[in-house]
Design brief:
It is built from 2 helices and 2 strands; from the N terminus they run E-E-H-H. The chain is α+β, with helices and mostly antiparallel strands and 111 residues long.
């Protein structure tokens, strides 16, 4: 079972959202034992402490870290999309040209 959690402090009542996922679906509703709950609480606390330590090192808030991560991800996806479009355009323009001879290729010839 995989799980993730997120602490929300953007309301008057801080709370945690938990999400559980199974690699293979075996149950629709889980029931946790007391020891399961203790384990989850320790893991959640540990994850929150690691997040806080990371933010302290960066001298920023978790909100800023994730906002920056999201902006970088959007920028990366835009660059990838543009690169794919450029390659598609380039490929269609070069489709009538014959393949280069082996000696003109930048890749080494493997025998």
């Amino acid at each position: 079972m995989l799980w993730t959690a997120d602490l929300h402090t953007n309301t008057q009542h801080p709370h945690v959202h938990l999400l559980f996922m199974e690699k293979e679906h075996t149950m629709d509703r889980a029931k946790f034992t007391q020891s399961d709950m203790k384990y989850l609480k320790r893991q959640l606390l540990s994850a929150l402490e690691r997040r806080q330590s990371y933010c302290d090192r960066l001298e920023t808030s978790a909100d800023d870290v994730f906002r920056n991560k999201d902006q970088q991800f959007r920028h990366l996806m835009s660059d990838v999309e543009q690169s794919l479009l450029d390659n598609k355009t380039s490929s269609s323009q070069n489709s009538s040209k014959p393949f280069r001879k082996e000696e003109e290729c930048s890749m080494p010839h493997i025998t």
